[in-house]
Amino acid sequence: MAARALVAAVVLCVCAELQEARGSGGDAPHRRFEYKHSFKGPHLSRDGSIPFWVHTGSAIPSADQIRITPSLRSQKGSVWTKTPVSFEHWEAEVAFRVSGRGRTGADGLAIWFSAAQGLEGPVYGAADQWNGVGIFFDSFDNDGKKNNPAVIVVGNNGKLVYDHQNDGSTQALGTCLRDFRNKPYPVRARITYYKKTLTVLINNGFTPEKEDYEFCTKVDNMIIPPTGYFGISAATGGLADDHDVLSFLLFRLTEPGQELPPPEQEIPKEEQDKYQEEFQNFQLELDKKKEEFQKEHPDVQGQPLEDLYESVSDREFRQVFEGQNRIHMEIKQLNRQLAMILDEQRRYVSVITEEISKRGTQSGQAPSQELDTVISTQQEVLRNLDDLRNTVSASVKQLAVGQHENVGGLGSYETVQHFNDIKEHLHVVKRNIEHIIQKNTGPAEKPKCPELPPLPACLTMAHFVAVVVIQTLLFLVDLFLKCACKCFVCFSLNMWEKLGLFTLEDVNIFSLKVNKV
């Protein structure tokens, strides 16, 4: 009964995920930008400090970015918010670069949400035994398993010591392999904590498109402190990379239907009137300057009136590009949702496999009815994914036709290339699910290797010795007969020579022929 209930729960979850992927995914939460917990260039730092942030160690703020650690050995640095954050739901967008001369780098960069500021320590430049969550961009392979660079999510309750030797693999709540070093464009990470679920999306930095995110990992039932500090840290070891952070943008999320957070303290009425008066004075002064300039330079004509309006062809091109961009964004969103569904399906299959293996160990074999239910469920998931793939393929074909008709053809190659990548990802999803179905078929259906034929009997030692002895005797007898024959012929020739029947020259010629024989 427990296994049947588990299978039913899996079916409901998969159907819900598919409905979410086909639909709009529900109302999105309201986002509000929190400037007091963010930073971004230009004019990021003027006097060596960062507004609303504190930096320690080898961190070097500049006008456009913050270099957390330079490419020198054994460096540590970090930046942390000055005031704590008490948002129930939030989303952080981080843009950074990790660059170095070697093929491998060290040690990596970390994004933190912790109950206390871990200003300096052994974990990527921040303190160990933190209370919160850390998203680690690990670039050095400490365990030698060739699973780096990687993105690792590790939670801590303040008592856990980070496992450096195994790159945190024994403590990871979620991970994905992403190469974030030496990219042509900044790498971007979108970290969302919404309804106790932590989701990490990565932009690999291959294109200038800022919203080109790919699904990395998701952690359900993630418990973090209600109040904490955001931080970014980095460290170098025997190898060294430049770890540069270009921006950190924090958004407060509010569930649909809930009351929005109160706005910041409004400006008093007196200050508003003062600013309004200053603006009006500035506008009047600007108008006077314009009139004086036109009087002094009557030959200079302004912008032609027809240039202020777009032509019919420009409007058509703009509408085509906007439509293609919307289709492009929808397909990318569908790709991310399919990746999340595949991740959920893998976890469900692993849970079902463990449960069935336990029951099979206890009763001797798993019930065939439960196995059939699991297989039919997975086949239904495969059919639904095929429908989604066909829908995406039809959209891609329509978009390709529109691009061939487009005379300008701006950006068509990159768009088609991206759609081809999406189609390839969908084929990979299909192959993975087919592999799961084949893997979960009954053990009786698996092919067996043919039995080996019986080996022939080996030659005994007695037979071998007898054959060798007989062959040796035959060889000796043959050799003896040849020697005796030669001796007899030589003796006869000598006798015939003495009797005068042959000359000495005839005897020598005959002897040479006998020796050759």
From TrEMBL:
Pfam families: Lectin_leg-like. Keywords: Disulfide bond, Lectin, Membrane, Signal, Transmembrane, Transmembrane helix. Residues 31-253 form the L-type lectin-like domain. GO terms for molecular function: D-mannose binding. It comes from the Eukaryota. GO terms for cellular component: COPII-coated ER to Golgi transport vesicle; endoplasmic reticulum membrane; endoplasmic reticulum-Golgi intermediate compartment membrane; Golgi membrane. Gene3D superfamilies: 2.60.120.200. Its main location: endoplasmic reticulum. It is found in: Endoplasmic reticulum-Golgi intermediate compartment membrane. One of its GO terms (biological process) is endoplasmic reticulum to Golgi vesicle-mediated transport. It is a single-pass type I membrane protein. Residues 1-23 form the signal peptide. The chain crosses the membrane at residues 461-481. This is L-type lectin-like domain-containing protein. It comes from Pygocentrus nattereri (Red-bellied piranha). The lineage of its organism: Eukaryota, Metazoa, Chordata, Craniata, Vertebrata.
